[in-house]
Design goal:
Blueprint lengths: L15 H21 L5 H33 L4 H22 L5
Helix pairs in contact: 2-3
GO cellular component, one term: proton-transporting ATP synthase complex
GO biological process, one term: proton transmembrane transport
InterPro entries: Atp1_alphaprobac (IPR016989), ATPase_put (IPR032820)
């Protein structure tokens, strides 16, 4: 122990009680993690969110483009666009429900 420092000096010696406590804590954390079986994978969450956004945007843009083309070819403005937009919304929500129902690996 240094002359100028109060208290005990634990830098030089390893306390067996602290080592045993560390080991028990490590074991308890491992048991708790295996009991819960939940591992949070943030990369999977980001990937799933990106898939949902792309499904939503892709379905809406694709269906709007097809509806606009139908209106231009057959002269049915604005009904082709409206019908295809509603169909695109339905497809997008179906894909979102399917993607969000996937179980984590």
């Amino acid at each position: 122990m240094a002359e100028n420092e109060p208290g005990q000096d634990f830098h030089g010696a390893e306390d067996p009680r602290l080592s045993a406590l560390d080991e028990r804590l490590r074991d308890a954390r491992a048991r708790e993690a295996s009991r819960q079986g939940v591992k949070v994978d943030t990369d999977k969450g980001y990937a799933q969110g990106s898939r949902i956004i792309s499904a939503l945007i892709g379905s809406l843009v694709g269906s709007a483009l097809i509806g606009w083309l139908i209106d231009r070819w057959f002269g049915t403005a604005p009904w082709g666009l409206i019908v295809m937009l509603f169909l695109g919304i339905a497809v997008a929500f179906r894909q979102i429900i399917r993607i969000s129902g996937e179980r984590p690996e």
